[in-house]
Amino acid sequence: MTIIAAIILFGIIVFIHELGHFLFAKKAGVRIHEFAIGMGPKIYTTQKGETKYSIRLLPLGGYVSMEGEDGESNDPRAFGKKTLLQRASIIFAGPFFNIILTVLLFIPVFAYLGSPSDSNVLGKVLENSPAIEAGLEVNDKIIEINGAKISNWQDIVDNLAKETSQPINIKIERDNTTKDFSITPEKNEEGKYVIGITPVYEKSILKSIPKAFIMTWDMIKQMLTFVVQLFTGTIPGGFENSVSGPVGVIGIVSDAAKMGIINLIYIAAVISLNLGILNLLPIPALDGGRLLILGIEAIRGKKLDPNKEAMIHTAGFMVLMGFMLFVTYKDILKLF
């Protein structure tokens, strides 16, 4: 059942991506022949107006088939007949919808997990940490660090960020009395000096919204860093352990489904963002490749020959399919 859930979830993410292309194409008046989820043989199809809606056997992607998207067309409603801005918006809409979906999925995740409050009260003191060994307790209120007044959690973060392995003096308020502690920070795995405390977490839909945007932006930066490492061959842990194809993704989603709905939603957000960002890479056949060609058109002041452009994207598609087969082969080997 978890594999089925994974396939359905992946289909939903692809559907949102293609829906972005579809809605903006409709708004621009482009003739759409087919809206498909999946690739390969059809397992379901229905016709509404001029557009065919279908679900295909292989859950490897989807597409919106537009008149004149790949090749010359004299139809006034062809994709190629639209303005540069209209065509760019249609192409960009798919990845953009995936980014928006990521934010929307992160909101319930952070609403459930909670967001750090801005109070200077301890929500948790970690086991085997300098703080617990010194005697700090949950609900202690930190009021001074090395003589500096503390009024919120950011003050705590800012002051502790200055510290090294030298003992620090922390004054807390507990049961209407004040106590002084001397605590020696220890270096964590990231090379930062910490004492082992966390804030109180508040469950709030309103507070989860900005947190969702921040997390999405941070993950976008991480993904762009990964892309640079991919092309420079400097991926930590190596290429094979860092890249997954459809089989690997379905396995990851299946594992997340076993751990609960929140984990599943979180993984869905990550996959959606991956789909959106990777599609913006300037590679032929991807949305980013098509946007690159539109950028060249804007600079040149005239269109590239539609048939030549179609050949470029076809070649890019073949390379991407070869890459996907290679990664899928590696995923299958990992299963055994």
TrEMBL record:
What keywords is this UniProt entry annotated with?
A: Hydrolase, Membrane, Metal-binding, Metalloprotease, Protease, Transmembrane, Transmembrane helix, Zinc
Q: Which residues cross the membrane?
A: 6-25, 90-113, 261-281, 310-329
Query: Pfam families in the record, alphabetically?
Result: PDZ_6 (PF17820), Peptidase_M50 (PF02163)
Q: Where is the PDZ domain?
A: 121-176
List the GO cellular component terms. Answer: membrane
InterPro entries attached here?
PDZ, PDZ_6, PDZ_sf, Pept_M50_Zn, Peptidase_M50
Topology in the lipid bilayer? Multi-pass membrane protein
Q: Which cofactor does it need?
A: Zn(2+)
Which terms in the Gene Ontology molecular function aspect does this entry carry?
Answer: metal ion binding; metalloendopeptidase activity
Tell me, in one coarse class, where this protein mainly resides: membrane
- Which family is it part of? Belongs to the peptidase M50B family.
Q: What PANTHER family does the annotation carry?
A: MEMBRANE METALLOPROTEASE ARASP2, CHLOROPLASTIC-RELATED (PTHR42837:SF2), REGULATOR OF SIGMA-E PROTEASE RSEP (PTHR42837)
Protein name listed in UniProt: Zinc metalloprotease
Task: Please report the organism this UniProt entry assigns to the protein.
Answer: Romboutsia ilealis
